[in-house]
Write a structure and sequence with these properties.
This protein is of the alpha/beta class and 120 residues long. It is built from 4 helices and 5 strands, in the order E-H-E-H-E-H-E-H-E. It has helices at 16-31, 64-73, 82-87, 104-111, and strands at residues 4-9, 35-40, 77-81, 99-102, 117-119. The longest helix is centred in the first third of the chain and has 16 residues, at 16-31.
Length: 120
C-alpha cells in the first residue's frame, strides 16, 4: 500500500465548493500520515497566489485559506502546473507557503509509485 496520496484540483473561485472539499480531503490524507500532494491545474492554479483564497468560505467548512495554511503547515505540498500558471500570467513571487510551480513530470513521478489520486 502506498504511503502517498494526491488530490488534483482544477477549480478555484469558479467552484469554491470543490476547491474547499479538495483541501478537506487532502488534510484528511495528511492526518492519516500519508505524504500528500495537491496538484493545482487549469483554474486551480489561481489558489497558489497569496490573498486569492482569503474570501472563500463555504458554509459548513473552515475557510479555504485556513484549510490551505494548515495543509502547508502540516507538511503538505502544493504542486502548481507550470503551463497553466504561465498561461494565466501569475506571479511566482506571490506563491503561498508550500506551493511550487512544476512541470507535469513532477506529478507523474509522485504518482508512479502507485499513489492514489482523487480529482476535483
Amino acid at each position: 500500500m502506498s504511503g502517498k496520496f494526491c488530490v488534483s484540483l482544477t477549480c478555484a473561485k469558479d467552484d469554491t465548493d470543490k476547491a474547499t472539499v479538495a483541501f478537506v480531503v487532502a488534510s484528511a490524507a495528511l492526518g492519516s500520515e500519508k505524504e500528500t500532494v495537491v496538484f493545482l491545474s487549469t483554474e486551480g492554479v489561481r489558489l497558489s497566489q497569496k490573498g486569492y483564497a482569503d474570501d472563500i468560505h463555504e458554509e459548513g467548512f473552515a475557510a479555504l485559506k485556513e484549510l490551505m495554511d494548515n495543509f502547508a503547515k502540516g507538511g503538505g505540498t502544493i504542486l502548481t502546473c507550470a503551463p497553466c500558471f504561465k498561461k494565466r500570467g501569475l506571479d511566482e513571487g506571490a506563491l503561498i507557503p508550500g506551493a511550487k510551480v512544476v512541470g507535469g513530470a513532477a506529478l507523474v513521478e509522485f504518482l508512479s509509485g502507485g499513489a492514489p489520486c482523487v480529482s476535483y
